[in-house]
Amino acid sequence: MAPAMSNPLLSDRVARSKKVPSSHVRAVGDRPDLANVDHESGAGIPLIDLKQLEGPGRRRVVEAIGSACENDGFFMVMNHGIPEAVVEGMLSVAREFFHLPESERLKCYSDDPKKAVRLSTSFNVRTEKVSNWRDFLRLHCYPLESFVDQWPSNPPAFRQVVGTYSTEARALALRLLEAISESLGLERGHMVKAMGRHAQHMAVNYYPPCPQPELTYGLPGHKDPNAITLLLQDGVSGLQVQRDGRWVAVNPVPNALVINIGDQLQALSNDRYKSVNHRVIVNSASERISVPTFYCPSPDTVVAPADALVDDAHPRAYRPFTYQEYYEEFWKMGLQSASCLDRFRRIE
Ligand code: OGA
Ligand code: NI
């Protein structure tokens, strides 16, 4: 239930103020240092064309995906198969949702991370000391029929539009997981099988314009706890990835999606593929919307690498754990650069 006294959402409370409130101001050594960011001319990460993924060029595409997973942990894909109209529909219904009157949006508010559908702010308001410049709607998406009836029914097209997008995003996640399995020399279906019954969550992130972007984060540096993330962003920059200790801006490329390896694929690949630190910066000129799809093992899945990826030179990096155990640890830790995965590392 929404608290009766005050609106907890950022977008309504402070977005129009001239100063960032103290609740959102980071300590001096913990600020984004915006002058020290690499703005490369391209996307800043590899851009991979998926057009040939199901054709004679498959092997080359698989190799490109494999080397991006190994060296960058992040890449962009074009010709990914999700129709442009579906992508545009998703972004516009997301914008419409966050532009609804607050009384309407607040019907979805909850600060309980266990809820399958909820609107909240920052990251985990129950545990964090400084808040982030973000409101977000989080939805469980798979199996769709188990959750869609709990999703917001306003805007009226929300369930249909978001349901279509999340079904398309799942199909793309499965194709990528097949390519990733092959790139590791495993059977095409390996990763899909290793993830049990599967789960899919979506965040609809809303970053309002911020009067002092140098004092706060949309999201501070973190690694994603799931297996693979498919990020749809509107035309506004904000995502940055860490490479060799430097922050690199990932500028949006029209019709491309950003893909990144999460902690579970790092574990399932026995550390061959990298879950990389990334963060979100806000800006004073415009709001920004992003829609990450987090594809994950089901909670009861025991996460462990294929035998073929373990040998004397590559001993098991992690103790076996269930995804549920991992996810609870992740939420407890909060967003910080210390890796949650390191807590599951085997000590020889
Ligand atoms: C996330 C994330 C990036 C973005 O939600 O985990 O990294 O651009 N989002 O919003
Ligand atoms: Ni992330």
TrEMBL record:
<feature type="compositionally biased region" description="Basic and acidic residues">
    <location>
        <begin position="27"/>
        <end position="36"/>
    </location>
</feature>
<keyword id="KW-0560">Oxidoreductase</keyword>
<protein>
    <recommendedName>
        <fullName>Fe2OG dioxygenase domain-containing protein</fullName>
    </recommendedName>
</protein>
<comment type="similarity">
    <text>Belongs to the iron/ascorbate-dependent oxidoreductase family.</text>
</comment>
<dbReference type="GO" id="GO:0051213">
    <property type="term" value="F:dioxygenase activity"/>
</dbReference>
<keyword id="KW-0223">Dioxygenase</keyword>
<feature type="region of interest" description="Disordered">
    <location>
        <begin position="1"/>
        <end position="36"/>
    </location>
</feature>
<keyword id="KW-0479">Metal-binding</keyword>
<dbReference type="GO" id="GO:0046872">
    <property type="term" value="F:metal ion binding"/>
</dbReference>
<dbReference type="InterPro" id="IPR050295">
    <property type="entry name" value="Plant_2OG-oxidoreductases"/>
</dbReference>
<dbReference type="Pfam" id="PF03171">
    <property type="entry name" value="2OG-FeII_Oxy"/>
</dbReference>
<dbReference type="InterPro" id="IPR044861">
    <property type="entry name" value="IPNS-like_FE2OG_OXY"/>
</dbReference>
<dbReference type="InterPro" id="IPR027443">
    <property type="entry name" value="IPNS-like_sf"/>
</dbReference>
<dbReference type="Pfam" id="PF14226">
    <property type="entry name" value="DIOX_N"/>
</dbReference>
<dbReference type="InterPro" id="IPR005123">
    <property type="entry name" value="Oxoglu/Fe-dep_dioxygenase_dom"/>
</dbReference>
<feature type="domain" description="Fe2OG dioxygenase">
    <location>
        <begin position="198"/>
        <end position="297"/>
    </location>
</feature>
<dbReference type="GO" id="GO:0002229">
    <property type="term" value="P:defense response to oomycetes"/>
</dbReference>
<keyword id="KW-0408">Iron</keyword>
<dbReference type="InterPro" id="IPR026992">
    <property type="entry name" value="DIOX_N"/>
</dbReference>
